[in-house]
Design a protein that fits this description.
nine-stranded mixed beta sheet, 8 helices, globular, Cytochrome Bc1 Complex, Chain D, domain 2, Immunoglobulin-like, alpha+beta, 257 residues
């Protein structure tokens, strides 16, 4: 009886220690994509790079194989898992992956023992496939048909634009949707609550932005360089591109309507 009780206590203790590891290590991280992938086709490689920062301010250095990217196709059990690799810059990682089927894919990045960071859904378009015409055997057609086949096979048909991805176009023409995706992809949702862009882990360390009264000029300057406006701020400079800043301002402004 004593041995059984001791064994149970040991298992509970080890389990509690495992659960406590993320908290002991700092509790949470912010994952910031360098660039949100938008034009994706099945079977084609997608390259991403991102920064992981503990509490959003300190680069988190992890070894090869410790940062895992997981993607699952919506409505199926098809899943891929990729190990991101350190790029040599503190807290910075990159990965290349291929999504094998079209549709909507949900994905996340898990840095070590820390909770995973969900990313915006990826809409994957069907692959562009053009099957080469088969040259008929000499006995199948007459010589004139074979010659016609050879001539026609040399012609270059215009690229099929009807199946081009709509994801990139949608985001380009709808800055609010693009800004919403960036709010998650850049890690804003980890620190700021916004009811239109909820994530499982939102620390709330920053102000809630659901109904934030946006002054576009101020928010633009803030996103460009927070410390230039408030030197003591804990918000990191995200190195945003101007179109990304414009989209984030549009998304935050939409909550006022």
């Amino acid at each position: 009886m004593y041995k059984q009780t001791t064994g149970v206590a040991l298992v509970i203790g080890l389990f509690s220690l495992l659960l406590a590891q993320p908290a002991a290590a700092g509790g949470w991280t912010v994952v910031t994509l360098d660039e949100l992938p938008v034009a994706i086709r099945s079977g084609e490689p997608v390259e991403i790079s991102f920064q992981v920062q503990q509490h959003g301010v300190r680069p988190l250095t992890l070894g090869a194989g410790e940062v895992i990217l997981t993607a699952q196709q919506q409505g199926s059990d098809q899943t891929i898992q990729i190990m991101a690799q350190p790029t040599g810059r503190p807290g910075h990682y990159s990965a290349e992956f291929v999504l094998p089927a079209s549709g909507v894919w949900k994905w996340e990045i898990k840095p070590g023992f820390f909770p995973p960071a969900p990313m915006p859904d990826l809409t994957v378009e069907p692959a562009k496939t053009q099957l080469a015409p088969r040259m008929p055997a000499s006995g199948e057609w007459g010589w004139w048909r074979q010659m016609a086949f050879q001539i026609m096979s040399q012609l270059r048909l215009p690229a099929d634009s009807s199946s081009a991805t709509t994801t990139g176009a949608d985001l380009a023409t709808d800055p609010v949707s693009y800004g919403k995706a960036l709010f998650v992809a850049k890690g804003c949702a980890t620190c700021h609550l916004h009811t239109s862009a909820l994530v499982p882990l939102s620390t709330g360390v920053g102000p809630e932005l659901s109904n934030y009264q946006v002054i576009p000029e101020y928010v633009t300057a803030w996103l460009r360089d927070p410390k230039a406006i408030k030197p003591q701020t804990q918000m990191p400079t995200l190195a945003l591109q101007e179109p990304e800043i414009e989209a984030l301002v549009a998304f935050l402004s939409a909550g006022q309507r």
